[in-house]
């Protein structure tokens, strides 16, 4: 009888050990980005009396990207905004952003960049980061534009400042 109790105790300890190993050894999954697109964060400013000030564009604003030669609306009639976040092209080295204002006029922002693939893992695949290389704009309502952080990734930092005429 003592021998059976000893066997039962050994069996219970063994089962608990296996169960504990299974629970702690389980893979909880990979930390893949759910949205694996790098967004270019563009903030709005004005210069007044030589001082930079954040600017809230209050009228309806539509923001589009040129994709394969066609305009694709990304943000439609947004109001009271001081920034926009836009995906960047993986296949081109220049993105064209079109700002359509409520007065029927528009500005274009030309963003030159290099694309750098980043292999995260077999499960998550390859992500794309970008380095901003140059910037030009038309000057209907945009007075100037500047790159403030040239690395576009998932961190959400402000990348470009657009200065609107006051």
Question: Would you write up a description of this structure?
Answer:
The chain has 166 residues and is mostly beta strands. The protein has one domain. Helix content is 14%, strand content 51%. It has 1 helix and 11 strands, in the order αβββββββββββ. It has one helix at residues 2-25; strands spanning 39-48, 51-54, 61-67, 70-78, 83-87, 94-101, 106-121, 125-137, 142-147, 151-152, 160-164. The chain has a 6-stranded antiparallel β-sheet, with no helix packed on it. Strands 1, 2, 5, 9 and 11 form a 5-stranded mixed β-sheet that branches. It is elongated, with a radius of gyration of 26 Å. The termini are far apart. The model has no long low-confidence stretch (mean pLDDT 87).
Q: Give the structural class.
A: mainly beta
Classify the helix fraction into a percent range.
Answer: 10-25%
Are there runs of 5+ residues with pLDDT below 50, and where?
none
DSSP strand tally: 11
Query: What is the domain total for the residues?
Result: 1
Features of the shown structure:
166 residues; single chain; 1 helix; mainly beta; six-stranded antiparallel β-sheet; 14% helix
């Amino acid at each position: 009888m003592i021998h059976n109790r000893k066997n039962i105790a050994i069996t219970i300890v063994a089962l608990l050990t296996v169960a504990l190993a299974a629970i702690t050894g389980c893979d909880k999954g990979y930390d893949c980005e759910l949205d694996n697109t790098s967004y270019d964060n563009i903030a709005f400013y004005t210069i007044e009396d030589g001082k930079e000030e954040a600017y809230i564009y209050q009228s309806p604003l539509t923001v589009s990207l040129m994709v394969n030669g066609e305009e694709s609306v990304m943000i439609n009639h947004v109001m009271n905004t001081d920034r926009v976040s836009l995906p960047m092209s993986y296949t081109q080295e220049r993105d064209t952003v079109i700002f359509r204002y409520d007065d029927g006029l528009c500005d274009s922002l030309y963003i030159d960049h290099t694309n750098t693939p980043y292999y995260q893992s077999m499960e998550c695949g390859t992500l794309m980061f970008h380095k901003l290389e140059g910037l030009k704009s038309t000057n209907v309502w945009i007075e100037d534009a500047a790159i403030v952080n040239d690395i576009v990734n998932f961190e959400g930092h402000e990348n470009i400042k657009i200065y609107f005429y006051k």
